[in-house]
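Q: What residues go here?
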């Protein structure tokens, strides 16, 4: 299984989760875990997804999600699980 960590941060607006999840579903990317919170007017979401079945390369997926984030007014970042784990190792 190829896991990717996706983070979404920005001002809260209607439809953020719907737009991100629609992109993932349309590209065969399965959500394994999801956590989201809103503090005052700021939205923060972290997802762990399985990218095994997508035909998109990691770079194309990251670029697509970054563009989607710009379109909806948030910042969307993607990291491969192994990179994320190495960066957050104590």
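A:
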């Amino acid at each position: 299984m190829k896991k990717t960590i996706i983070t979404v941060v920005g001002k809260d607006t209607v439809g953020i989760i719907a737009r991100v999840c629609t992109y993932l579903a349309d590209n065969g990317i399965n959500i394994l875990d999801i956590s989201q919170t809103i503090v005052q007017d700021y939205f923060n979401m972290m997802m762990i997804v399985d990218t095994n079945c997508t035909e998109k390369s990691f770079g194309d997926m990251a670029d697509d999600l970054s563009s989607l984030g710009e379109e909806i007014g948030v910042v969307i970042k993607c990291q491969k699980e192994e990179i994320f784990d190495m960066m957050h190792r104590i």
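A: Context that may help when evaluating the design: The radius of gyration is 13 Å. The longest helix spans residues 58-72.
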